[in-house]
């Protein structure tokens, strides 16, 4: 799997079997899967959902969506706040239309929570940083 480092954007090749080992970037040595949201395609999404044991929080968004853009800082703040407790992913619904359809995304932003390979909750619409972090605490 190719993962772009959320810190320095360097492409890193990571074996699927090593994802649970919390791999670091080969260039900047920061964690690839915590501390910052990770933009994923359908293949990466499927692999991460099946491989990681901890909760996975997914932001389904689009570049043209105003509420998505206003929610992005709150999402990034939560990713940093809960680093090590969850993995935060971003799915661009325009770029990943097949995945968006499979996830039944009808409005954006939609936030999904996965644990053990299955969806356990979802919420539609933007929230403030405080509201979002408070909502997330139920999963940790």
UniProtKB/TrEMBL annotation:
<keyword id="KW-0813">Transport</keyword>
<dbReference type="InterPro" id="IPR013766">
    <property type="entry name" value="Thioredoxin_domain"/>
</dbReference>
<dbReference type="GO" id="GO:0005737">
    <property type="term" value="C:cytoplasm"/>
</dbReference>
<dbReference type="InterPro" id="IPR049299">
    <property type="entry name" value="Thio2_N"/>
</dbReference>
<keyword id="KW-0249">Electron transport</keyword>
<dbReference type="Pfam" id="PF21352">
    <property type="entry name" value="Zn_ribbon_Thio2"/>
</dbReference>
<dbReference type="InterPro" id="IPR017937">
    <property type="entry name" value="Thioredoxin_CS"/>
</dbReference>
<dbReference type="InterPro" id="IPR036249">
    <property type="entry name" value="Thioredoxin-like_sf"/>
</dbReference>
<dbReference type="Pfam" id="PF00085">
    <property type="entry name" value="Thioredoxin"/>
</dbReference>
<dbReference type="GO" id="GO:0046872">
    <property type="term" value="F:metal ion binding"/>
</dbReference>
<feature type="domain" description="Thioredoxin">
    <location>
        <begin position="32"/>
        <end position="140"/>
    </location>
</feature>
<protein>
    <recommendedName>
        <fullName>Thioredoxin</fullName>
    </recommendedName>
</protein>
<comment type="similarity">
    <text>Belongs to the thioredoxin family.</text>
</comment>
<keyword id="KW-0676">Redox-active center</keyword>
<dbReference type="GO" id="GO:0015035">
    <property type="term" value="F:protein-disulfide reductase activity"/>
</dbReference>
<keyword id="KW-0479">Metal-binding</keyword>
<keyword id="KW-0560">Oxidoreductase</keyword>
<dbReference type="InterPro" id="IPR005746">
    <property type="entry name" value="Thioredoxin"/>
</dbReference>
<keyword id="KW-1015">Disulfide bond</keyword>
């Amino acid at each position: 799997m190719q993962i772009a480092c959320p810190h320095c954007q360097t492409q890193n090749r990571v074996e699927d079997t090593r994802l649970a080992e919390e791999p670091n970037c080969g260039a900047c040595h920061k964690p690839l899967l915590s501390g910052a949201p990770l933009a994923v395609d359908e293949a990466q999404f499927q692999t991460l959902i099946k491989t990681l044991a901890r909760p996975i929080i997914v932001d389904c968004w689009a570049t043209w969506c105003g509420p998505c853009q206003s929610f992005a800082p709150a999402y990034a703040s939560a990713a940093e706040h809960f680093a090590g407790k969850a993995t935060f992913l971003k799915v661009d619904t325009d770029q990943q239309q097949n995945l968006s359809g499979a996830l039944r995304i009808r409005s954006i932003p939609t936030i999904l929570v996965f644990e053990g390979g299955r969806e356990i909750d979802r919420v539609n619409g933007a929230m403030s940083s405080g509201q979002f972090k408070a909502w997330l605490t139920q999963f940790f």
